[in-house]
Amino acid sequence: MAETTSSENSLHIRVLGGLILGAIAGTIINSTFLTPVDGVKPPPPEWLVFIQKYITDPIGQVFLRLLLMTVVPLVFASLALGVARLGGMGSLGRIGLKTFAYFFLTMTAAVVIGLTLVNLVKPGVGLPPAIQTQMAEQFGGKLNDTLSKPTTFGIQTFIDIVPRNPLQSMVNMEMLSVIFFALLVGIGITRLKAEHNQLMQNFLESVGELMVFIIGLAMKFAPFGVFALIFNTTANFGLDLLKNLATYVIVVIVGLGIQMFVVFPILLSSLGKMNPLTFFKLTRPVILTAFSTSSSNATLPTSIRTAEQDLKIPAPIAGFVLPLGATMNMNGTALFEGVTAVFLAQVFGIELTLTQQIIVVVMCVLTAVGAAGVPGGSIPLLALVLTTVGVQPGAIAIILGVDRLLDMCRTTLNVLGDMTAAVYINQSEGAALSKSPTS
Ligand code: ASP
């Protein structure tokens, strides 16, 4: 564990290095060779076209695909396993209900905070039309081959959640259908004979671990991938885009901060009957692990240990709420998705009605539930949210260069949200549970 942590830390420094170097290199090239003369942007020099076509663009794309390839099996395995475990604890049905209610309410609060901020600050408004067109041309449709097909939002969207053929849904990365199937499989597993039940749980756990291993390999490539992505972004658009992204980044981080330092303390004192300062002090190892790994899954062992040893939460509650939370409860991710969807809509000049924004809230909560607790786990699901606001999934490429930083921050909120849920469930159910012989 200690080894993993230190190598993860040095990886983060290298990723940050890749980000900074990519931004510097791209910005220098942009301001030296692509500064508009009399309002006209000069054509890019041949060597730059070559570098982008044969080096930085492929590296960025390959990095993205390495992450995307794990998403379907990981979401399926972790979700089905989470439900199977929940269903297996029949006597904990009420705890399940409370946990889900807490997850959904806090995620909804997070998205509402994010949408309020992004609508007030409007970080995506103000890009000159020429740059908008250029961005649309460059990024639009680029990720289409790896992301699910854009859909419209209507009654058919809900019908389509139920897959006709679950394998086909997996192939097409129709994540809501994959989630639906995973829920049924998870429930079904609890009805199997003990021997088969265990077999399925072991299998799903192994699939999850395999995917985490592959993501670990992909992440070794991250410093180069991030360098390439930010280099392309800055070389092509320079400071105008960076300035817009900076406001967007600040909006996301301020939103996460409000949820963490205003909403969580209120919930901790009222529902959890715990001093928020004590909570933040005791959960420091969890905060550090989440921030440095950008992965709810990777942080889970630390969360469980801290909950049991430091927060004195009984093992049945910690072992139930936290693994489920690592898969399903993602406050930071939901907020990030909401801000990003509205930000990109602003970039492309798409006005959103109140109804559309409410749909965004619902979609963000649903897709945050489906997002895998791994670095960049929410990126493919963000495509679904984008299609509901009429933005091409390929536009995700615009924010990928800064996603690593945001991922570190939102994962910290994701994991702390699980910890607050465990504190609440312990406060309301801990006493009853310790008396129950079935637990
Ligand atoms: N990295 C996040 C997590 O593990 C998921 C995401 O938003 O990409 O919680």
UniProtKB/TrEMBL annotation:
> Subcellular localization, per the record?
Cell membrane
GO CC, sorted alphabetically, is:
plasma membrane
UniProt KW keywords: Cell membrane, Membrane, Transmembrane, Transmembrane helix, Transport
Note one Pfam family from the annotation. SDF
Q: How does it sit in the membrane?
A: Multi-pass membrane protein
Question: Which GO terms of type biological process are on file?
Answer: dicarboxylic acid transport
Record field: transmembrane: 12-34, 62-88, 100-121, 170-189, 210-233, 245-268, 358-375, 381-402
The protein depicted here goes by the name Dicarboxylate/amino acid:cation symporter
The organism that produces this protein has a lineage beginning with: Bacteria, Pseudomonadati, Planctomycetota, Planctomycetia, Gemmatales
